[in-house]
Amino acid sequence: MGAWVWAQPTPRPAILGISHVAFQVKDLSKAINFYHGLLGYKPTRMRQKNTAPEQVTFKVNGRQHLKIFSGLPDGQDERMLEIALEVTNAEAMRQYLLSKGLKVPPKLDQEPTGILSFTVEDPEKHLIKFIQLKQKNTSKSFREEQLSDAVSDRILHVGITVADVKKMDAFYLNLLDFSEIWRGGRPDTVINWINMRVPDGTDYFEYMLVSGPVSRQQLGVLHHVALQVPSMQKALDVLRTRLNDPQPYKLESPRIGRNNRWQLNLYDPDGTRIELMEPFPMR
Fold first, then answer.
1. CATH homologous superfamily of 15-138
2. What SS3 state is found at 174?
3. For a designed S-S bond to 16, which of 45, 86, 180, 196 qualifies (C-beta 3.0 to 4.6 A apart)?
4. What is the pLDDT of residue 5?
5. Biggest alpha carbon–alpha carbon distance for the chain
6. CB 120 within 8 A of CB 103
7. Which CATH class is domain 155-277?
């Protein structure tokens, strides 16, 4: 009598953290002035096909980048293009999601640098890219090659709009094994934000809960990136030396957030919020 052969479940490869966040901008020069002139990240222009939007990459550290693309159309509210998650094996991740019934591309994309990736949509249409870095890059410390002029050397979290928590949890919590680490709101009796940490690292997504249509201005606030700074005062001191070079920038005052950490909101020329945040609560 033949023995039963049970199909083994496809394992999920490690999801290490946020690799990059990409935004579309209307005026590339003005955006570079913000991300380079104010935040201090060195711009690297990427070669694109003639018909493709121009791309500029800003290295935050050895494993994380901010990216901007030209060509934001007049009247388009959405500026966030994609969020990339670093995985140990892109093909294994594609096979894992396929085994769970998710629609995935038939094959991986390979960049000239050897980076492997594929992109899917989450339940609320945010584009999520899974990216596998070249082997020689994966052993580097994430702080390696961080620029001394940069105001921060880490992307701590990225904010995304969420209208249906159950549907998003089915993707991030149940499928990708993210875990909830904090929730809060203003006032305390209301939940406005839920923080969901990646399964194999300390970066996290912030659910920005919405209950109806949002304006362009609101979307720029909700779809945001948080950069960690060891000291808000030191960050302020650096930013204040750059407020008029190369173009004037009006700096808001820092505030203490609902998580009891110092925070400072900055906005690029298209209204996308870049949040600076200290790593620990105030004492």
1. 2,3-Dihydroxybiphenyl 1,2-Dioxygenase, domain 1 (3.10.180.10)
2. helix
3. 86
4. 55
5. 82
6. yes
7. alpha beta
Q: Which two tokens stand for residue 85?
A: 């998650």
* CA angle, 254 then 283 then 40, to 5°: 35
What are the start and end residues of each CATH 3.10.180.10 domain in the chain?
Answer: 15-138, 155-277
For the chain, strand residue ranges (E) read 15-24, 43-46, 55-59, 65-69, 80-87, 109-110, 116-121, 127-132, 155-162, 179-184, 193-197, 204-209, 225-228, 255-256, 262-267, 273-277
> Pairing state of beta strands 127-132 and 116-121?
antiparallel
Half-sphere exposure of 117 (CA within 13 A, CB side): 21
User: Looking at this protein, which amino acid is placed at residue 172?
Assistant: Y
Give the pLDDT score at 84.
98
Q: For 130-147, how does the pLDDT look when each residue is reduced to its tens digit (9 = 90+)?
A: 999 987 544 444 445 545
Environment class of 60 (CB within 10 Å of its CB; exposed 0-12, middle 13-18, buried 19+): buried
Does residue 247 come out as left (phi exceeding 0), alpha (psi in the -120 to 50 range) or beta? beta
Chain segment 221-244, per-residue pLDDT in tens: 999 999 999 999 999 999 999 998
Record the pTM.
0.93
- Look at residue 8 and tell me whether its pLDDT is greater than 90: no
Would you say 230 and 279 are in contact if contact means Cβ atoms under 8 Å apart?
yes
Taking the C-alpha atoms of residue 233 and residue 31, their distance in angstroms, rounded to an integer, is: 25
Q: What's the confidence (pLDDT) of residue 58?
A: 97
Beta bridge partners of 109: 117
Report the chain's mean pLDDT, rounded to a whole number: 92
Identify any residues that bridge with 262 across adjacent strands, giving them in sequence order: 256
N-terminal to C-terminal alpha carbon distance within the chain: 69
What tokens does 174 get? 């149940």
